Every structure is written in structure tokens, then in C-alpha cells.
Amino acid sequence: MRNPNGYGSVVKLSGNRRNPFWVRKTVGWNEKGYPIYETIGYCPTREEGNILLAIYNKNPWNVDRAKISLRELFDLWWNQKAIQLGQSNQRSLKSAYRHIEALSSMKYREIRSYHMQDCIDSCGKGYSTQSAIKNLWRHLDRFALERDIITRMYSKLLTSSPVPQTSRERFTDAEIRRIWEVYAESQSGKDFGKIPVEWTDTILILLYSGFRIGELLTLKTDHINLQEGTFTGGIKTNAGKNRVVPIHSKIAPLVQRRLDENSPFFIQIGGHPITQTAYRTYWKCLMEFLHIKRTPHECRHTFESILDSKGANRKCIDLMMGHVSKDIGNRVYNHKTLEELKSAIELLDISE
């Protein structure tokens, strides 16, 4: 079906391109009678091109390419592109904008790599923030290039601090056994006063599932299938979202007790999910009581470290943790069944 006159069109360009579909609109005619096109954007599929064209016709971004400022470009990008990103990524990029806001009134096409680099170098922050600023410049450059505002992506020249070497260490076997002991004592009715020892079950679930703290605290009970023995969760990356993680046999009773609370949220207080801030208060109290100096993320590091040392299949570990396999053969061709994942996770065996 043809689009109405003046609506615009989506045309496939020749050659091997990442985004081969050109979304355009006729804005006039030259002296020879040929159409003059306004480029709305470029998309990987015709379907996405038609969606972009529909969005444009609903709310056109009529801008003066020579005069559009960084602030105006950021607002357009935020309304048109950022909505396609995950919430965590959106928060990171919006926060990064504060570090480039000093250039907000500058014409975007006059911004050069040294302007961008200075925002990174002068932010006074570490690797994570510097990486977010660099990422934001790349998003804005790509958006501006698609709309013929710029002809060169200066963001490709940017550098930031290297990824710092991790200082995380795994829980020792003795520490894990100590957590199991305290959990067992809490279930036997032993009085620990005001120490929230009942929350030791969450430490063990983190250790035996590989979930990030945010992933565990947002997990809903309808994403847990005890009959099949699986969690379905994950929130951070495309590879990690909605991944299937087998429930290790040792924590199955702990999971059942949580499910027996009949709340829509797996980890909850009074039927409501607990925030990371509140949970970390419990964590700090428990670590002091247990005489253990570990962070919640070190549970995830422990999960991976032990499975790797026990010879678990690398692809299985990556799938359960939501990582993309570094090996191309594993990433593309190696598909693992649920039974293989269950066999792999059971290798995480530490005597109580």
C-alpha cells in the first residue's frame, strides 16, 4: 500500500549497510524537477523505518541543521531514541548529560572532539561516569549524523579511563559454611536478638543463583517455577534479561519458604518489594555479625568462580549469568538445554 502524498517513504539503499533503509520526505523540487529529500533517519529494517516515519509525521522534528544547539539535539534524541533504551541505560545517559551541559547553547555542528574530550577529562569522576559521557556523545553523534546535522562523528576519537582491575574476591568455603550454619540456627528458633538472621537466606540465594542484587530484589514469584526448578529473571543486558537460571537443589527449600509467604514479590516486606538501600542495611548488619567483609556482588563473583573451578561448561555459566560468550563458536552455535544448565549449576557444591 502506498503512503499518502506528502507522508514520506522508506527506501532500501544498495550495498552492505548496517542501516540500509533510508527514511525520507520530499520537501521540494530542484530546477530539473527532481525531488529534494529531507532525511529523517536510517533503520535496519523496513518495519522500523515505517515506525520512524509514523513517529515523525505525528511529531515532526523541523530543525535548522546549521543552528541546532546541543540542548535542542539532546531533547530531540531523548524523545525519539532514548525511549528505545533500557531504564538503567536511560538513567546513566541522563546523568551523563550534566557533565556536558556547559556546552548546551553551543551549535552542535561546531562541537569538536576536544570539546567532548574535555567534558570527560574534567568531570572528576571515575571509569563508570567517563564511559557514560563517552557513550552519550556517541548516541548524539549518531543521531545528528542520521539527520545530516553533522558529516563526521568526532565521538569516535574519544578516550576514557580504562576499566579498573576488579578487587572483588569470592566468598571462602568457610564463610559460606558459616552462613549456612547461622541460617539453620535461625530456622531452629534460636534467638539472635535484633540481628536479622532470617535474611541470611537471601545471601545463600544470591550465592547459588548468580543473580545481581537488583535482579533478585525485583524478581516476582510468578517468574519462579518450582516444578520445573527454574527462576526466570534478569534486568541488565539483552543477554541477561529474562534468562532462565535453574534453582540449585540446596536452596530449593529456601525458595519454597519465600514462596509460602504468598506475595507477588519474591523478596518482600509486608507484601512490598524491598529497596536496594533497605536491603544493604540488612546486609551490612549481617556481615558485621558474621565477621565477613563481602559485598552483594561478590556473591555473583563467587558463583562464577566456583563453577569455573569445578569445570562447568563455559557456555552454561555465561547463559546463567547473562553474559555474552567471548568465544564466537559458543556464542553462535552452542545451544544448551535446561537439563545441561541444571547439571552445571549442581557443580556448585559446598558442604554445609
Describe the structure.
The chain is mainly alpha-helical. The protein has three domains: 1-60, no CATH class; 64-165, Tyrosine recombinase, N-terminal domain (DNA polymerase, domain 1); 173-345, hpI Integrase, Chain A (Orthogonal Bundle), CATH 1.10.443. It is built from 14 helices and eight strands. The chain has helices at residues 46-58, 70-80, 87-97, 113-121, 127-146, 173-187, 200-209, 213-217, 252-259, 276-290, 297-309, 314-321, 328-333, 338-345; strands spanning 9-12, 21-29, 35-43, 224-225, 230-233, 243-246, 268-269, 272-273. It has a three-stranded antiparallel sheet with strand order 1-2-3, with helices on one face. Strands 4-5-6 form a three-stranded antiparallel sheet. β4 (224-225) and β5 (230-233) form a beta hairpin. The longest helix has 20 residues, at 127-146. The radius of gyration is 26 Å and the shape is elongated. Mean pLDDT is 87; it is low at 326-334.
The sequence of SSEs as H and E is: EEEHHHHHHHHEEEHEEHHHHH
Largest sheet: 3 strands, antiparallel
Strands of the biggest beta sheet: in what spatial order? Answer: 1-2-3
Write down the CATH topology of the largest domain: hpI Integrase, Chain A
The CATH class label of the largest domain is: Mainly Alpha
CATH architecture verdict of the largest domain: Orthogonal Bundle
Mean pLDDT: 87
Q: What helical percentage do the residues reach?
A: 40-55%
Global outline: elongated
Strand elements, count? 8
Features of the shown structure:
3 domains; 8 strands; hpI Integrase, Chain A; elongated; DNA polymerase, domain 1; 352 residues; three-stranded antiparallel β-sheet; mainly alpha
